[in-house]
Amino acid sequence: MIGVFDSGIGGLTVLREIYKEIPKLNTIYFGDTARTPYGNKGEGVIKRYSSQVVQFLINQGAEIIIIACNTASAIATNFLKEKFDIPIFEVVLPGVEKAIKVTKTKEIAVLGTRATINSQIYPKLITLKDKKAKVLSKSAPLLVPLVEENWIQKPETELIIKRYLNFESSFDTLVLACTHYGFLFNIIKRNLKNNINIIDPGKEAVFKLKTFLNNNQKIKSRLLGNKHEFLVSDKTKKFQNLARKWLQKDIILKQHIFE
């Protein structure tokens, strides 16, 4: 099965994309809701949490991992790839590659959690691939808890988004460097100029996964079955209701608590 994990509910945006683009895969999702958000944690803690979750997913039968969290992707990807001998996909590099491909002005804005922005992973990778690119980065720490609280349609949320989108300079491409922001995509879009590209790194990561599976049909055949499991470290009705609404599935949550 495919193991997908996030610090909370944001990774469901990636999971929905998997259902859409690569149907009938067996999947297991883990939302670390008891310890969310990862975005305000230190590097060592993020690596430890991510390692615990990946090991748990492997123990449950996951053969491929998607880190559906920009913070964990930015901080822990190399650490996890060194520790675990299975294919691991992350969301940062696919988002970077797409942003570079579509920008015309070479001015790219990045909106993410504090940990992702402080890691400087997006500016480093973007300028490594295109030295002429200019990157504008901004942390948006309030957006993750607003999504987790299901305040997506609240007017206060739109006001906060407008404030975060007030960058100091112009740009033609915006990277949503947190999978939680996928829930806010339509609100973000209507508060930007029509000609601005909005990059969802989660979607780009699923495209990478799809390409990998198409090139490895034996692996893909082992993952087929259309069975889905959903686990969290803190089981709440709020998570279950939002997950059901977002995925259009009758979801039964199970809980796993790390020692």
What does this structure look like?
The protein is an alpha/beta fold and 259 residues long. The protein has two domains: 2-90 and 203-255, 3-Layer(aba) Sandwich (Rossmann fold); 92-201, Rossmann fold, CATH 3.40.50. It is 47% helix and 17% strand. The protein is built from twelve helices and ten strands. It has helices at residues 12-21, 43-59, 70-83, 92-102, 114-119, 121-129, 143-148, 155-164, 185-190, 201-214, 217-223, 237-247, and strands at residues 2-6, 27-31, 64-67, 88-89, 107-112, 134-139, 173-177, 197-199, 228-232, 253-255. It has a six-stranded parallel sheet, with helices on both faces. A four-stranded parallel sheet has the order 6-5-7-8. Helix 2 packs across helix 3. The model has no long low-confidence stretch (mean pLDDT 95).
Topology:
Blueprint: E1 2-6, H1 12-21, E2 27-31, H2 43-59, E3 64-67, H3 70-83, E4 88-89, H4 92-102, E5 107-112, H5 114-119, H6 121-129, E6 134-139, H7 143-148, H8 155-164, E7 173-177, H9 185-190, E8 197-199, H10 201-214, H11 217-223, E9 228-232, H12 237-247, E10 253-255
Parallel strand pairs: 1-2, 1-3, 2-9, 3-4, 5-6, 5-7, 7-8, 9-10
Helix pairs in contact: 1-10, 2-3, 4-6, 4-10
